[in-house]
Amino acid sequence: MAFVGLCDCNNFFVSCERVFRPDLERKPVMVLSNNDGCIVARSNEVKALGIKMGTPLFQVRDLVKKHNIAVFSSNYQLYGDMSARVMNILRQEVPDIEVYSIDEAFLNLEEMPLDTLQPFARRLSARIRREVGIPVSIGVSPTKTLAKIASKLCKKYPKLQGGCLMYRKQDVEKVLATLPAGDVWGIGRRTNAKLKALGVETALDYYNMKQAEVYSLFTVTGLRTWKELHGEACIGFEDVQPDRQTVCISRSFAKEMTTLEELDAAISTFTGKVAEKLRKDHLCAQQMSVFILTNRFREDAPQNYQIKNTLFEVATDDTLEMSERAAQCLKQIFRRGYAYKKAGVMCTRLVPKRGVQASFLDTIDRDRRASLMDTIDAINKIEGNYTVRLASQGEMDQFSARTMTSRRFTTNWDEIMEVKI
Amino acid sequence: MSKEAELAEVHAGFPSPAEDFMDVALDLNKELVKNPSSTFFARVKGVSMIDDGVGDGDMLIIDKSAEPWDGCLAVCYVDGEFTLKRYVNKGDYALLMPANKAYKPIRVDADNQFAVWGVVKYLIKKM
Question: Which range has the worst mean pLDDT, A130-134, A320-324, A372-376?
Fold first, then answer.
């Protein structure tokens, strides 16, 4: 039997903050989204208070005060670096890993003998905790879907010491009986609603369905998950990096914006960032949306939400073309007399750059523009972000409304730890 | 020699006599940071360790994973603050020894919020 591991960092953003704030160990901590709007990470203590993921901060202000919850703005520079440290250790210990997200990676353990797996997972977990300071849960199973479930067990049972091997049929069935079907990797909200209607509540109920029935109801994707629960590996390594469906950049502003000029600068900056992301992933967009909205939590102010979609004849990743178009969109949707709190640019209908259909009506010399964009990206990479930018573009940070950010302890010399002696 | 070969030779120029001895330039990171995953940097503020040569504004290279040993220069977390002292384990309690006559040793035991956060591997001073 070949095994696969999943290493998941426990409450990752919270754990990153705690490395530099040991006093917050076992205290309630939460981290907010990029613009301090919603809760994106919670410590176990916060989860125990019944505060849900994605809740807007203002809805839980009283709880924050009452339970003295430590609240942080998101510090992605720090989280990114801490993630790289964890991944480095994983790579040292397992030659073949697949980084699945900032806080998760699959480990290819097929070469390892069965009796070494459990101690290995525990030792690796302890090593990451000791060296980086981040607690992780490593689940080991015959399939990726089961490994995810095994890693969840580590979080539930500290006795497992961060490493859990799960493969025996009776063990798997016992665990699946306690797990809601919707918590299984690959079972989405829609599938789950369908399952509920059929009376399928737990993962074990799903596991016990007939193969043919699963296939007829949920086609090949549902069947894949079902087979994976039965220990048959269907999701290989590097199989699960779905192409990006959208690229979106949006921010809440620290101060509301009332003029077209202010919003123009913001939209131009976001568009530049979106285009850069597209180029980095070798994608082009066929559609772009520009949106602006007022503060929906301010009942005293007039409300306005506007979105404008626009199509590109030839799918594009060109900052100049996209910025010009975004500015036109903004002009059409901007209304005087409203205080805009948030704006964003989103690209959809993405296609791989290599597959872009040319048009003979195209007025842009794509090759020359592409080399201009490459040059800009290269300069910005070496000299720092925003060295070269459109005159209308601002710096991303000026549009962030983060107020409770910890230091960038590991990526900025001016913000390294301070030791009082 | 054919015309083409002759031209190629001219264009190629002389091979560098150093080519066979090429080495990678010295890299302080490689020398001072043995394990990047567990290495953190910190800036010192204060004078309690001045007799050990650790002064205000110096930079510390800390290994978070190192097991502290008696007398090591340790970054400790005591009651809400990071501090740098010589760490002495006394079993039931620990002593954090300053290196400045004006300061007294700090005694920490189960009543304190205390942890050795990391061990100092190198000290960088600006001259």
Answer: A372-376
Three-class SS of A334-367: CCCCCCEEEEEEEEEEEEEHHHCCCCCCCCCCHH
Per-position DSSP letters for A205-216, written without gaps between them: HHHTS-HHHHHH
CA angle A196, A200, A203 (to 5 degrees): 115
Note the pLDDT tens digit of each residue in A371-392: 888 888 888 777 666 677 777 7
Spans in chain B with pLDDT lower than 70: 1-19
The average pLDDT across A81-92 equals 95
| Spatial CA neighbour of A172 closest among A212, A137, A201, A207 | A207
Please give the C-alpha separations between residue A215 and each of A220, A223, A230, A251, in angstroms, as whole numbers.
6, 5, 15, 42
A225: enclosing H helix or E strand: helix A211-229
* ipTM computed for the complex: 0.83
Beta bridge partners, A71, equal A30
Greatest extent of chain A over all pairs of C-alpha atoms, in Å: 70
Give alpha helix (H) positions in A3-52: 12-19, 44-48
Domains in chain A, start-ordered, CATH in brackets?
Answer: 1-167 (3.30.70.270), 171-240 (1.10.150.20), 247-399 (3.30.1490.100)
State how many domains chain B has.
1
CATH number, domain containing residue B41: 2.10.109.10
Q: Are strands A417-420 and B39-45 parallel, antiparallel or unpaired?
A: parallel
In this structure, is residue B10 part of a structural domain?
Answer: no
- What is the torsion angle, in degrees rounded to the nearest 10, for the CA atoms of residue A403, residue A408, residue A414 and residue A419? 100
**Alpha carbon of A150: minimum distance to chain B alpha carbons (Å):** 26
B38 with A131: Cβ contact below 8 A: yes
Chain A residue numbers touching B38 (CB-CB < 8 A) = 85, 130-132
Closest CB to A417 among B37, B42, B47 = B42
Residue B75 resides in a domain: yes
Which residues of B are catalytically annotated?
48, 85
Chain A residues whose CB is inside 8 A of the B75 CB are 419
Give the domain extent around B48: 34-124
Q: Which residues contact A213 (CB under 8 A, 6 or more apart)?
A: none
In the 8-state DSSP scheme, what is residue A409? Answer: T
In this prediction, what percent of chain A has a pLDDT beyond 90?
A: 63
Q: What is the DSSP string of A158-221?
A: GGGTTEEE---HHHHHHHHHTSBGGGSTT--HHHHHHHHHTT--BHHHHHTS-HHHHHHHHHHH
Asked if the structure places residue B4 within a domain, the reply is no
Q: Is A11 helix (H, G, I), strand (E, B) or coil?
A: coil
Place of tokens 């590109």: A312
Angle at the Cα of A11 from the Cα atoms of A7 and A12, rounded to 5 degrees:
70
Contacts B46 to A, Cβ<8 Å? 420-421
| A89 to chain B, closest Cα gap in Å | 7
Task: State the Rg of chain A over Cα.
Answer: 24
The token duo for B11 is: 């264009």
Q: How far is B49 from chain A (nearest CA, A)?
A: 7
